[in-house]
Amino acid sequence: MVAKVLLQRSAVAPVTATLILGGFALQPRTAHAEAPSRKPIYDDLEDLPPANIEPATTSSPRTANPQAPVEETPRRPTPTDRLAVEIGKARMFLYRQAVTAEDAVNRTVDRAFNLEQSFTNTIASLAPPKESGEKLMPGAVYVLVAAMAGSILARNRNVLLRATAPLALGTGAAWVVLPVTTNNVSNLAWKYEQRFPAVASTHTKVRESIEQGWHFAKVHKDIGLQYVDNTVSNARETVESWVRKGK
Asked: Which of these, 176, 166, 164, 175, lies nearest to 146 by C-alpha position?
């Protein structure tokens, strides 16, 4: 059995080999046509010798002589130019006038403001401080009543007395009722009087004479009181001696 199988395989092998070789022999082949060889078009240019190209010489333009004088004809001003100059002068004149007027207004406003500040500060400096306890309203009424009383008392007197009596009584009442305010007013009046030496000198003399008279009055008052006291003492001693003698 085995031998039979081997014989069959050996008989089939030549047939198979024959079929394979026949298949290779009958297989079609494609023929490729060769393209004709072409010469490059730039080969001729490579064979040519290089051309000698000379740079073109440019002719330099003639430079003008800097030392040659250039004649310039002066241009006369046109009417438009003259009109522009006149308009500029007019504008500058108006500008200067406006600046001058503005400065004058500013100076006037500054003076008014300084005057207002000075007046306000002066009035505020006359008021008494709070710690003094001095009140203006009732004190001012008392001073006014004293001045009116002086006017009433000097009603039938001469002109000088009628003019000085209210002032004297009002000033005296002010020194008594409003001493701090009156002192401030006196200092302010003295400060303004110092601007006029003649007035300040007269005020000083009058004040010294008043103080001297007041001092003399006090001295004479003390002398009078002492004289009265001595007289009363002597009279009492005399009366007492008479009484003792009468007993």
From this structure: 166
Whether 221 is covered by a domain: the verdict is yes
Number of separate domains in the chain: 3
Q: Is pLDDT of 58 > 70?
A: no
Domain region containing 85? 81-126
Instruction: Name the burial class of residue 168, with classes exposed (0-12), middle (13-18) and buried (19+) by CB atoms within 10 angstroms of its CB.
Output: middle
**What pTM did the predictor assign?**
0.46
pLDDT tens-digit map of 19-51: 665 554 455 444 444 444 555 554 544 454 555
**146: closest CA among 117, 178, 170, 180?**
170
> DSSP letters of 80-103?
HHHHHHHHHHHHHHHHHHHHHHHH
Same-domain status, 176 and 138 = yes
| DSSP notation for 32-49 | PPPPPP---TTHHHHHSP
- Asked whether residue 6 is assigned to any structural domain, the reply reads no
Which of 126, 161, 182 represents a domain boundary (last residue)? 126
Query: Are 189 and 141 members of one domain?
Result: yes
Residue 183 falls within a domain, yes or no? yes
Task: Tell me if residue 186 falls in helix, strand or coil.
Answer: helix
CA angle 67, 69, 73 (to 5 degrees): 155
Name which residue leads in pLDDT, 175 or 95. 95
Which tens digit of pLDDT belongs to each residue from 60-77?
Answer: 444 445 555 556 677 788
Residue 148 lies in a domain: yes
